[in-house]
């Protein structure tokens, strides 16, 4: 493997819909080509309208998720409100950049709705360089596959059900062409009324 981010394998997509946003990731935990687990959490709830996907080295996934939970608890105690998605994206970007000389090997994907209900997505590399988009962002070990599927299937202003179907098909089709990610997935659709989470069954090979 050329990078520590490719040791465990991962695939993560965030996509914008009409008044909603979705984030999906696979559930495989591997040691290169060997599958260690099939129910590894890569998407974490920050609050009711904000989720973050953390594809990358499994140990750093746990470290970053715990670090961001700690920082968000401090933020809520001080500000007495939930953090906005764009501010959270900046916060996690700064957290990664602080460790740029000995980085955490995760490439986060942020998805959420702001206080006005507008969708927000972003992705970043392991030193926190942010990438913003109005349609979709991808991260993990099979970005070329995910980009190809998303570009083929994405349509603007999709309703929540259509967005779920698009995300599910993009994720499953992409990981079928990557040997170190897959074994199903999970999709979260975030709307103003709440979050719908569904598990996907993928090829067990």
From TrEMBL:
Keywords: Cytoplasm, Nucleus, Proteasome. It holds the Pfam family Proteasome. This is Proteasome subunit beta. SUPFAM superfamilies: N-terminal nucleophile aminohydrolases (Ntn hydrolases). It comes from Cafeteria roenbergensis (Marine flagellate). Its main location: nucleus. The keyword Cytoplasm applies. Signal peptide: none annotated. One of its GO terms (cellular component) is cytoplasm. It is found in: Nucleus. One of its GO terms (biological process) is proteasome-mediated ubiquitin-dependent protein catabolic process. InterPro entries: Ntn_hydrolases_N, Proteasome_beta_3, Proteasome_sua/b, Proteasome_suB-type.
């Amino acid at each position: 493997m050329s990078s520590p981010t490719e040791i465990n394998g991962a695939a993560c997509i965030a996509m914008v819909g009409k008044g909603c946003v979705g984030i999906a990731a696979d559930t495989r935990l591997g040691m290169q080509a060997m599958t260690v687990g099939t129910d590894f959490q890569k998407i974490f709830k920050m609050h009711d309208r904000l989720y973050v996907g953390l594809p990358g080295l499994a140990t750093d996934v746990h470290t970053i998720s715990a670090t961001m939970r700690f920082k968000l608890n401090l933020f809520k105690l001080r500000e007495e409100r939930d953090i906005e998605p764009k501010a959270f994206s900046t916060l996690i970007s700064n957290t990664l950049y602080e460790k740029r000389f000995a980085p955490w090997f995760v490439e986060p994907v942020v998805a959420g709705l702001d206080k006005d209900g507008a969708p927000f997505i972003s992705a970043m590399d392991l030193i926190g360089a942010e990438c913003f988009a109005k349609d979709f962002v991808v991260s993990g070990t099979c970005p070329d596959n995910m980009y190809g599927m998303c570009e083929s299937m994405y349509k603007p202003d999709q309703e929540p059900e259509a967005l779920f179907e698009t995300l599910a098909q993009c994720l499953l089709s992409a990981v079928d062409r990557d040997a170190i990610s897959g074994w199903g997935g999970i999709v979260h659709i975030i709307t103003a009324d709440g979050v719908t989470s569904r598990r996907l069954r993928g090829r067990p090979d």
